[in-house]
Amino acid sequence: MDIGTAQDLWKIDSVWLNTAQYGIPPRPAHEALSDAVATWRHGAGLPGPWGEAAESARRSFAALVGAAPEDIAQGATTSQLMGTLAASVPDGARVLVPEGEFTSAVFPWMAQADRGVRVQAVPLAELAGAVDGDTWLVVFSLVQSAGGELAPADAIVAAARRHGARVAVDATQAVGWLPVDATRYDALICSCYKWLMAPRGLAYGYLSPALRPLLRPGSAGPAAARDPLGSFYASEMTLADGAARFDISPNWFAGVTAARSMAVLLDIGVPRIRDHNVGLANRFRAALGLAPGDSAITSVEAHNAGERLRAADVVAAERAGRVRVSFHVYSTEEDADRAAEALI
Q1: Which domains does the chain have, with CATH numbers?
Q2: Residue 127 in contact with residue 163, Cβ under 8 Å?
Q3: d(CA 66, CA 60)
Q4: pLDDT digits (tens, 9 = 90+) for 184-229
């Protein structure tokens, strides 16, 4: 499916340049959600199909990040899945994070301070150089939330491997527009309500086979069992063989939506989406006299920028003292031009 054809799947009543806050679902996803809510409202069916949709979403997420479905865990939020990792970090471990990192990728590790876990923040550009033999884990976002900068992932991973450190990434602002290979990392975690265009309350995490034996399934319930439907009242714990042993019960409605939204993304193709999104971001930047970038997210500093964009019916966000705009499949050249004209 090409971008022009795909854009017919959306009907948006504003200039929505705020996918970095939440994404807008395509028509098939919205229809699937509406049908599920109607079934719930009228007691017209059992939740089996909703669970099947969540499993379909897991498979689609795996395809988007180049991983096997059995290596994908199902959670609710980035911080919840990060918390599973953090609870398993050894006492006294050193964890490296970038300065200004989104707190969902930082607080779970800081919450382990009573066990002597040390969290050190350094500038993103210096993260690779800060890795040493005392580093147990490096955590960073592939795409920074505040301004859209792409992390120097190659250098960070190479440094971590040289020193025997592990790498966990927050891919919430990346998966859906940026080609990603999760298997490069020990863990990759992504919430689905932004670029994957689902409701809040669903997240997926790639947990490598080498990392999983180090983790404790502290949130295990029936969803984490080898036989979920047969484990509602179990007195013995037999967990799933793969990453599903770290599952929590699915958010049915988010799963129903995510399955359809991710199917659209896969049909278009992530490289095509990246070119479209980055092209629009650079069109916006060029109109403001700025050099091109490599991200679907960009931020600028302009007097009363937020107020001026709102007056032009452009929806964006204000982060770290700057206005942040973000472009996705449904964004157009006219959207980029309208936003730029409001700020010139």
Answers
A1: 3-26+269-343 (3.90.1150.10), 48-265 (3.40.640.10)
A2: no
A3: 10
A4: 999 999 999 999 999 999 999 999 999 999 999 999 999 999 999 8
